[in-house]
Amino acid sequence: MKYILWLVLLWPSFLFARDIESAPGEFVVRLKKNISVQTSSLHSLSQALGSSIKDTIPEQNIVVLKRASFENRDVALKILMQNSLVDIAEPNYVYRAHRTPNDPMFPQQWGFYNYGQTDADLTPGIRGMDIGALKAWDLTTGSKNIIVAVIDSGVDYYHPDLQGNLWTNQAEQNGKTGVDDDGNGVIDDIFGANFVDGAKPTGDPADDYGHGTHVSGTIGAQSFNGQGVAGTAWHVRILPVKFLNENGNGYLDSAIKAINYARKMGAKIYSNSWGGGGYSENLKQAIKMTHDEGGVFVASAGNDSTNNDETPEYPASYAVPNIIAVGSMNNRGRLSDFSNYGRYSVDVAAPGENILSTDLYGGYTILSGTSMAVPHVSGIAVLLWSKNPELKNTTIRNRIMSTTKNLLGGSRIRRGLVYAPAALQNSIMNPDPDDPRAWNNQPLHISSAHPYLNNTHQEFEVTIPGAKRIALYFSKFKTEVDLDKVELFNRAGTKVTEIFGRNDAEYSLPIDGDYVKIIFTSDGNVTDYGFDITKAAWE
């Protein structure tokens, strides 16, 4: 079956201006050789240049000029370059140290800096699909004034990459052993509390499952300490609040007590990489109390590949104004196959697939899940509050959501990939030229059987004359994971990508050229809906 699309090409041009920072109204100007900074009157030069002279660099015949800060920079440069005295005129650019951590495992943390390195599955990433940590760290690295409650399975509080950023209860640390010195209902809670047995809480939040330790490392592993990994926030206080047991399970009463404890101990951010159970008004009220006291509640969307709009996942789906529901993204800039989604119920995505972080007994490990996405968002909230401590919790939430980057291939969630530098500067991201949603598009009608049969082999072709690259839009896609797949090939016969699992309302990776070959195969076991391709984007 062949689809050949003959289209009249209209090549729109888009100009994406890069706003390079410079000192307002300042310009570095080299004078022509017949004019000497050393021998000329600065007053005369100032008049001739129509600008005040802030400084000189005589060895290069340079003057540093100051003009009105509200003047358009490009207009000022044009005026200066038209001056007969001027050889070169440039803005007084701002340069900043690029603060790359010396932690030896940092290059494996693609969620912070994705330069196209392979992940644990040896899948190459797509450059720039990360949270922008390097740029964010030039603006802030966090603050010890901010407490993040990791409500989870506890924390390995002897881990050398975490110890320096763990919260301590000064009243208990300096009090008497066996006494509830601060009267909070938990005895000797020096490093946090344990509510696994809700009726008998203890002051020992030691992790015996590893989940909470991994989450904590992504939030706030010590950075620039020459070991292990880096955290999103280099400076923070992590409050371990344990309610999940050694199997990763916990109960409603324990969850409520854990949240209430964290609130009483001054948490600003609540990191929640857990979910399940039914709707609970009591749990919702506990979360609402964190909102009433100005906290942000970050929650995982779930790992069932289901639509939270149709089947809510709690606590992420509660209608409380301070909740940020987080899905998982892979290193190719797409929502992870396992991640829950929802155009109204899942707010943002963050790196959550093959994430390296801290583990029990001072170790490190790679885990995947929306659980791993949540701490990236919790860490960004730390950075944002450390730079702007006056912001309200709902402003923090809205800032994180309104400054996201587009996920590649389309999105099944409210927003996109959280992007720390944009959140810190409250700047809206420019359109991504690699996003097929900004390209031309043409209707298509290519489908498998619904459901498809065992041992299917179908081939389709799409040709768009003159196209430089093509992306196919799957309005509906559901196949057996790993085994029943769509493979896309370019004109040279090179396989560009393969797609399986659940991928509704998403574009494929772009295929270079004007031609795509589609091959759909299934094995002899499970069958499912299959796929519908309803349009092609091209440029």
From TrEMBL:
One of its GO terms (molecular function) is serine-type endopeptidase activity. It comes from the Bacteria. Keywords: Hydrolase, Protease, Serine protease. The keyword DNA-binding does not apply. Pfam families: Fervidolysin_NPro-like, Peptidase_S8. SUPFAM superfamilies: Spermadhesin, CUB domain, Subtilisin-like. CDD domains: Peptidases_S8_Subtilisin_like. Residues 23-92 form the Fervidolysin-like N-terminal prodomain domain. The active site is at residues 152, 211, 371. One of its GO terms (biological process) is proteolysis. The keyword Membrane does not apply. Residues 144-409 form the Peptidase S8/S53 domain. Belongs to the peptidase S8 family. This is Subtilase.
